[in-house]
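Page 37, continued from 36.
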């Protein structure tokens, strides 16, 4: 019996050592990923999209042969500096809460006379979607280093925030998933990737302040609309309509929870 106990203790010790080694290797891998990201920041390809977005912002286009330079992003016509850090927000002219991408579509319509249906219906990664992503990236870049300051004072802002909260916890689809399945608990990871706990200010900041972002694995620039649409895909939910209330509500939930955090856009992701 004593010999059996010794063997059991030895086996347990070996298991613990093995587990400790595995955790140590995991921590090293996570650290290596973070070092890789930091190295890439010095040459973030997102900067190319940012420059393209600025060109598109200033370029005359559409039936009205006008630029987007007088687009009101919430701080007055033509004011881009710091605007993204205060989006989504309520706009009186549309009587809606809008994010950067939906607001760009509104300005394309009103200022340039463009029929934006082709942008809404286009596939992800298409020239149409890339155009809006680039403009949103330019707008976001003008808020780099600014504090997130999203208002929830207007009744429609408050309603959108509440809708975003409900959507975050809503379970459905063939796997009964929700946003909270991945982002509703501290310390969750997938493929060594830390998943931010969105209901907390720190987690919301991690999930919000570095988008739009360049996806290294895909070689593509993603705005928040694309990021959220991909979350719907992973949950096996029907894909939301581009710039719909569904995605704007989730953005409102993240942004409002992240209030006070510092924007670090455009970002870079795996």
């Amino acid at each position: 019996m004593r010999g059996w106990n010794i063997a059991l203790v030895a086996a347990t010790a070996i298991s613990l050592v093995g587990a400790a080694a595995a955790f140590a290797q995991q921590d090293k891998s996570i650290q290596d990923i973070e070092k890789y990201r930091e190295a890439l920041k010095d040459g973030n390809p997102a900067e190319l999209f940012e420059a393209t977005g600025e060109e598109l912002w200033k370029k005359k286009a559409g039936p009205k042969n006008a630029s987007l330079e007088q687009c009101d992003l919430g701080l007055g016509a033509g004011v881009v500096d710091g605007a993204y850090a205060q989006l989504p927000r309520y706009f009186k002219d549309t009587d809606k809460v809008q994010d950067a991408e939906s607001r760009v579509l509104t300005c394309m319509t009103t200022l340039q006379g463009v029929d934006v249906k082709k942008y809404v219906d286009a596939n992800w990664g298409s020239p149409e979607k890339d155009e809006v992503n680039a403009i949103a990236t330019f707008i976001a870049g003008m808020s780099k280093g600014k504090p997130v300051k999203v208002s929830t004072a207007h009744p429609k802002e408050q309603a959108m925030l509440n809708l975003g909260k409900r959507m975050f916890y809503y379970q459905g689809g063939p796997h009964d998933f929700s946003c909270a399945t991945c982002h509703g608990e501290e310390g969750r990871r997938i493929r060594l990737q830390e998943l931010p706990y969105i209901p907390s200010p720190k987690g919301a900041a991690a999930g919000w302040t570095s988008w739009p972002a360049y996806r290294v694995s895909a070689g593509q620039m993603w705005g928040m609309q694309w990021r959220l649409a991909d979350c719907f895909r992973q949950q096996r939910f029907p894909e939301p309509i581009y710039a719909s209330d569904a995605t704007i509500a989730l953005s409102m939930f993240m942004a409002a929870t992240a209030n006070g955090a510092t924007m670090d856009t455009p970002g870079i992701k795996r």
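The two ends are 53 Å apart (CA to CA). Flag for discussion at group meeting. Residues 46-269 form a domain with the Cytochrome Bc1 Complex; Chain D, domain 2 fold (CATH 1.10.760.10).
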